[in-house]
Amino acid sequence: MVTRTPGEYRSPVKPTWCQDCGDYKVLDALMEAFSVLNIEPDNTVVVAGVGCSSRLPFYTNTYGFHTIHGRALPAAMAIKIARPDETVITVGGDGDAFSIGGNHFIHTARKNPDITYIVMDNEIYGLTKGQASPTTRNDLRTKVNPYHITAERINPVLLSLSFNTSFTARGYCEDQDQLKDLIIKGVQHKGFSFIHVLSPCTQYNSNLNHEKLIGRIQPVPENHDTTDRIASMQLAFTEEPLYTGLFYQVSRPTINDNLEEVRSAALKGIDKDSYSIKDVMKQFE
C-alpha cells in the first residue's frame, strides 16, 4: 500500500488568503487527515461555493468542484449519489453555508448523504471586506457595517443539532490535533458530517481573534454522551466556555441507502439484465 505525506495532497497553487488567516490551519489539518486516512487523490472530490474559504479546492491535489455561491452541498450530494465510491469533502464559510446556502444545509441534513462538510466560520464576510454574516455578533462595527446589526446571529452547532445532522462537531483552527481527528472521524462516519471550525479573520473582525478565543475554549466533557441530542444542544447553547470536539454522532440510513431500497423495490420482479424504463412504468398502469 502506498502511503502519502500531507504535502502530497497539496497542489502547487499557493493560497491567496490574508496573512495569519485561520483557513491556512484548516487546510493543513485537512491534508494531515487525508494522509492518516491514506485516501486516494483520484477518488476524492473537494467541493466549495464562493468566499475566502471556498478557494480551498484550488490548493488540494484532488478533484475539485467550485460551484456558485451557497450551492456546494447539492453538488456534493449529487457527486456522492452518482459515485458512491468517492470521498466527498465540502468546504465553505459562514456566509456561504448559513445565508444563501442555509436552505441546502437543512435538506442535506435530512437526506444524510455520506459527505463531510467543513465550515470555516470567521463571523464576517471577509471577501467583501467586512459585511455582517449570519454569525456576526451585533456589537461588531466595521467600515462596511458601521451601525448596529439588526439581525439575530445564529448558532451553527445548535442549528446542525436541530436538524438531527448525524455527525456534529466543532473545532478550532489553532488546535491542529483535535481538528485533524475530527476531520478523520467525520470522513469515517457513514452519513452527513458537519464540522464547524472557528477560523478567525485577521483583517475585518476584531471580535473573533486568537487572543479572545484562547481563554474561552474548552473540550467537550469526557463524560458527554454523544448519542444524546438534548445534552449536545445544552453544550451548544453554552458560550462560556465555548466547547469544541464531537457533540453528536448517530447512525442512520444515508440517501444512497434509501435510494437503493427504492431502486430494489422498483425493479422487483423485473429482469435486471435486460429491463427498459417501460418495464418499470408498467407498475403504474
- The CATH topology annotation of the largest domain reads as Rossmann fold
Large-scale geometry:
globular
H-E order: HEEHEHHEHEHEHEHEHH
- Rounded mean pLDDT is 92
CATH homologous superfamily grouping of the largest domain: Thiamin diphosphate (ThDP)-binding fold, Pyr/PP domains
| CATH class placement of the largest domain | Alpha Beta
Helical residues, percent? 25-40%
| Uncertain regions spanning at least 5 consecutive residues | none
Strand content: 15-25%
Distance between the termini: 53 Å
Strand order of the largest sheet: 2-1-3-4-6-5-8-7
Number of domains: 2
Major β-sheet profile: 8 strands, mixed
Strand elements, count: 8
The number of helical segments is: 10
Multimer state = single chain
Any guess at the CATH architecture of the largest domain? 3-Layer(aba) Sandwich
Q: What would you report as the Rg, rounded to the nearest angstrom? A: 20 Å
What is the structural class? Answer: alpha/beta
Structural overview:
- The protein is an alpha/beta fold.
- The chain is built from ten helices and eight strands.
- It has helices spanning 23-37, 72-82, 94-98, 102-111, 156-162, 176-188, 210-214, 229-237, 255-266, 277-281, and strands at 44-48, 63-66, 87-93, 116-121, 167-172, 193-198, 217-219, 242-249.
- It has an eight-stranded mixed sheet with strand order 2-1-3-4-6-5-8-7, with helices on both faces.
- α8 (229-237) links the parallel β7 and β8.
- The radius of gyration is 20 Å and the shape is globular.
- 42% of the residues are buried.
- The model has no long low-confidence stretch (mean pLDDT 92).
